[in-house]
Amino acid sequence: MGDLKKKMSRNGKIEFYRFIFSMYVLFFHIGKYIIKPEYEDGALFSFFAKGGMGVEFFFIVTGFLMAKSVYKIRQADPSNANIFKSSEGLGFLRRKYFSILPQHIVAFAITFVAYVLLKDLTLVGAIKKGIDSLPAFFLMQMNGMVFTSPNHVTWYLSVMFVGIAIVYPFLKKYYETFTRYVAPIASLIVFGWLIHETKKLTGVETWVGIGYKGMLRGILEIALGTSAFELSRFLSEKDFSFKQKLLLTLSEYACFGITSLYIVSQLNYKYEIYIVVLLFVMVSVCFSGKTIDGKLFNNRVMAFLGKFTLPIYLSQLTAIYLVNTFFVENAVQERVLVTFGLTLGISIVVMVFGNALGRFTKNVLVPFIKK
Asked: Which helix (DSSP H) or strand (DSSP E) does residue 89 occupy?
């Protein structure tokens, strides 16, 4: 178990991928809200037209890390391996929620101000929007309460928490059945149904009968991430030759390369299901510890980029709102550069003040409440 734990620890390359896919999402929104391109018929490439698929990577990684946690608990106490305790699931969910909440609060406040400026709201209008934004503030909007969501990229976080809450009990109680059978088969069936009904896998607020499309898609991708952990664990326990490790490394990069090309292409949306499969393989191989380049990424730079991912994700709409308010007359190239620069600047503010709020909550507020 010592070797397995070492192999399955935080992965610098995954942190690098986090940063890259957060950039893809940022560029997708820049293309959608700043460039607003009108593509010519027959055009093959575009400005990150499918960059929104970056969240598929994050959902799969979320499921992977949850399965890793559950596997560790099961191994530590085999006698209770198939017993689910609500306190255990709620504890995992609570830790995840409060690790994100401080930066979310800071980003939400800044984005709301930028949103009010963009919409040129009166004080009464701003108060009304603030009340309507409460579900989004508590990251509950994807339950069906999307009244107003100024920082609407947080739909991903809302879905992530619901997905964890739903998947965790089944994962803990039926680990092998869920990771090896239920999750992959259910994912493929539901993904196929979504593509058949809506012509593509992506989409957030399209209603599909039982909930938002983004909710259903996210839950199934989190479930698929648990299968990725099981595949990665299987690979980590195998002895590979150098040539075999090289082949695994090349396959990982091939998955990443094909995904990146698709993200900047105008290929049919029905192929999004292929990209989810490639991301599943990429994450499984990358976490396995069997590639030849893994150690090159285990450094402070990659660790920082991984931590910088959430602030970037939370800050991009603020920058877009500000640019569309104060730089609307500028050339599109200038607006793109300003949006990118503002996103990075606001991200630093979100990280610094979010971390400070997190420390204050942990070291001052929580002990005071417990007194």
From this structure: helix 86-119
pLDDT of residue 72 exceeding 70, the answer is yes
Q: Tokens for 136, please give them.
A: 């989004």
Residues found in the chain: 371
pLDDT of residue 299 exceeding 50, the answer is yes
> Is residue 269 a contact partner of residue 199, using CB atoms and an 8 Å limit?
yes
What's the rounded Cα separation, in Å, for the pair 371 and 241?
58
Per the CB < 8 A criterion, the answer to whether 46 and 37 are in contact is: yes
Instruction: State residue 42's pLDDT score.
Output: 55
Q: Specify the residue for token string 């500028």.
A: 330
Both tokens assigned to 323? 């640019």
Report, as an integer, the average pLDDT of 306-334: 94
Query: Among candidates 179, 214, 253, 227, which has minimal Cα distance to 55?
Result: 214
- Give DSSP secondary structure letters for 93-120: HHHHHHHHHHHHHHHHHHHHHHHHHHHT
DSSP annotation string for 122-161: -HHHHHHHHHHTHHHHTT-GGGT--S--TTGGGHHHHHHH
User: Would you say 29 and 317 are in contact if contact means Cβ atoms under 8 Å apart?
Assistant: yes
Q: Which residue stretches of 133-236 are H helix?
A: 134-137, 155-173, 175-177, 183-198, 213-236
Whether the model pTM is above 0.90:
yes
In Å, what is the CA distance from 191 to each residue of 217, 272, 297, 345, 346?
Answer: 7, 10, 33, 37, 36
Q: Is the dihedral of CA 354, 359, 364, 367 positive or negative?
A: positive
**Residue 326 amino acid letter:** F
Among candidate residues 215, 228, 157, 219, the one with its CA nearest the CA of residue 186? 219
Provide the β-strand partners of residue 45.
265
